[in-house]
Every structure is written in structure tokens, then in C-alpha cells.
Write a structure and sequence with these properties.
This protein has about 350 residues and is mostly helical. The protein has helices spanning about 1-20, 20-25, 30-55, 60-65, 70-120, 130-155, 160-165, 170-185, 190-195, 195-205, 215-240, 250-280, 285-310, 320-335, 340.
Length: about 350
């Protein structure tokens, strides 16, 4: 029963993340670098900080970070690398659309973000536990591949006019390369959470509820990512001379954009808030805990493709594309229960 509760909580957070790009479509007049940075302030600073304070008071949190300096800097460092993935992740959406772009990027992220932390923590992938984990990840990748193949069928069956209508800047080859790179770098978020385990344990020892104990570590990783995005967005501001764009916005546009940026940030952060809560229902050294990162990525792919259907990205894709999409999504859902079939 605890596992079911954990999965449901992660699923709710995943649904939020997969919906986070929808409010961005409501943003008016601002260039990419401005709305990306503003929503990032909410997604990577404001809401993670609020989540961390739910676990432990701000002064105690700072003390934990200082007393665990090595883990703190490692988490931030991985966050900086993850930030690079976050930047290119946005580009993958631009060139492939929500459905295919998230599928490829998150599939790569799932594999690297699950197996590398498992090996770093000493898991032997050739023991029974390791083999179950490998099987679960393999099934996840099969599901991702099927969804990706559905996307390739879609691009073949759609006319150029239909492609441009669904995704304005559609570019399959460029988009796939960017999405793969984004996936590898985005896996650093999982490495950052793994590096911050001493902080999580110290927070629990200091009285933090286990339900929220991972939130301070999440804050460190997102802060690292925010630094990367801040540097890039300021660079783009200067290059495109858009630095005063927000200040020159009308009151109506400014209010509209801030509200939708805040909503996008909240929805995006919900995935990691939900991940931390969901993990608290899993046994610490179980396969389910080790596989939880892939669970989040799998659900993100499923829900992102649901949004892809709602936003008509699959309109005109053809019957075979829809069949492979459905099979791929079903495979991803099946992957969630594999760790429990062998334990």
C-alpha cells in the first residue's frame, strides 16, 4: 500500500511538470530569454525555497549546508551541469514539440539518472537487485523508443504544412540531437540529489519530516541550474538587446506574464516536490527507491504525450503512429511495476 501511495504522489507531481509548458504559451510580447528566466526564478528559486522551509527552518537549513559543505557544493555543481540540460531541453520542445521532445530527452535522462547513482552508491548491477533494476530501465527505454518511433512516423505522415501548424519550428534531426544532449545533462539532477543524501539524512536527524526531507537538497540543485540559466539569459539579453523588454511592458502584459510564469514554475517544481514525498514511502535500499528517478521520467513522458494529443500535435500523424504511441505509453506504465514483480 505504501508503494501505491508513493507512486500516486509522484504521478501527481509528474502531471504538473508535463503541464508546465502550457502556461508559457499564454505569455505575450516577451522574448524567450526573458520569460524563461522569470519562470525560472519561480521554478528554481522561489518554490524550491518554500519547499525546503517546509522541511526545516531557514537558519537550520543554512547550518546544515555549511556543516555538510562537500555535499552542498557537489549538489550545486551538478545543478550547474543540469542547467545546461535545462536550456537545451527547452530547445528540444521548440524543434520537436512537447510530445517527442520530452520523450527523447527524458528517456536518455531516465537511463543515466537511474544507473549512475545506483553504481555510485555501490549497487552491483549483476546481483539480483541490480538485474531487476537493469530490466526495469530496459523496459523503460523500450517504451521511450516506441514513443520516439511513433514520433518519427508522425513526421513522415504529416504534410509540411501540418508539421509547421503543430510545431512552428519543427526540425527532426536537429531536434533529436539537442534532445539527446539535453537528456544526458539533465541526468545530473539525479546525481545532485544523490550527492546531497548526507544533507537529507542530517535534516531528518535534526527533526525534519521524512516526507519533505529531500526538499533542501532539491533547492541546492535548482540553485545551480538557476545560475547557468541566469548567465545565458543575461547574455541573450545583451545580444538581442531585450534587457528593457520587461520594464517597458504594459501593466496588463506584465501582470499576465508574471502570473503564467509563476504557474509554469509551480507546475515544474511539483515533479521534484512529489518525487521527494513519494520516495518517503519506499524502502531506503529497495529497487523501487533506486528506480524512482526512472519512474518520474516515465510518467513525465506519458503525461507529456497526453498533452501532445490535447494540443493536436498528433493530428494527421496516421494510424500506425498512434498505435505505436499507445503501445509505448502502455510499456512505460508497465515498467513502473516491474520492481515489485520480482521482490
Amino acid at each position: 500500500m505504501n508503494i501505491i501511495f508513493g507512486l500516486l504522489i509522484i504521478a501527481v507531481g509528474s502531471m504538473g511538470q508535463s503541464s508546465s509548458y502550457v502556461p508559457i504559451n499564454k505569455i505575450k510580447e516577451w522574448s524567450w530569454e526573458n520569460f524563461w528566466l522569470v519562470q525560472g526564478i519561480f521554478a528554481w528559486v522561489v518554490f524550491p525555497l518554500l519547499g525546503a522551509i517546509m522541511a526545516i527552518s531557514f537558519p537550520e537549513m543554512i547550518e546544515l549546508f555549511i556543516s555538510n559543505a562537500s555535499a552542498t557544493w557537489q549538489s550545486i555543481g551538478y545543478g550547474v551541469l543540469w542547467g545546461i540540460g535545462g536550456l537545451t531541453f527547452g530547445l528540444s520542445m521548440r524543434y520537436l514539440g512537447i510530445a517527442l521532445g520530452q520523450s527523447v530527452a527524458l528517456g536518455t535522462c531516465a537511463a543515466f539518472g537511474t544507473l549512475i547513482p545506483a553504481m555510485l552508491s555501490g549497487t552491483d548491477l549483476f546481483t539480483s537487485k541490480g538485474l531487476i533494476l537493469l530490466l526495469a530501465v530496459a523496459v523503460t527505454l523500450v517504451g521511450i523508443t516506441l514513443v520516439g518511433y511513433a514520433g518519427s512516423l508522425r513526421s513522415k505522415n504529416m504534410s509540411e504544412e501540418e508539421r509547421r501548424k503543430a510545431i512552428k519550428d519543427f526540425a527532426l534531426k536537429k531536434g533529436l540531437l539537442i534532445a539527446l544532449f539535453a537528456g544526458v545533462m539533465s541526468a545530473c539532477f539525479s546525481l545532485g540529489l544523490n550527492a546531497g543524501i548526507p544533507i537529507k539524512e542530517a535534516a531528518i536527524a535534526a527533526g525534519a519530516r521524512e516526507l519533505f526531507a529531500q526538499n533542501p537538497v532539491t533547492l541546492l540543485v535548482t540553485l545551480g541550474g538557476f545560475l547557468t540559466n541566469l548567465v545565458y539569459c543575461v547574455y541573450m539579453n545583451r545580444k538581442n538587446k531585450t534587457g528593457s523588454e520587461i520594464r517597458r511592458s504594459s501593466k496588463a502584459v506584465f501582470t499576465n506574464n508574471m502570473l503564467f510564469c509563476a504557474l509554469a514554475g509551480l507546475l515544474w517544481y511539483s515533479q521534484f516536490f512529489g518525487l521527494g514525498m513519494g520516495q518517503s514511502f519506499f524502502e531506503p535500499d529497495s529497487v523501487m527507491m533506486a528506480f524512482s528517478w526512472s519512474i518520474l521520467m516515465s510518467l513525465n513522458v506519458v503525461f507529456s504525450n497526453v498533452w501532445g494529443v490535447i494540443l493536436k500535435e498528433w493530428k494527421g500523424a496516421g494510424k500506425n503512429a498512434i498505435i505505436f504511441l499507445a503501445i509505448g505509453m502502455a510499456t512505460l506504465i508497465f515498467s513502473l511495476i516491474i520492481p515489485n514483480l520480482f521482490t
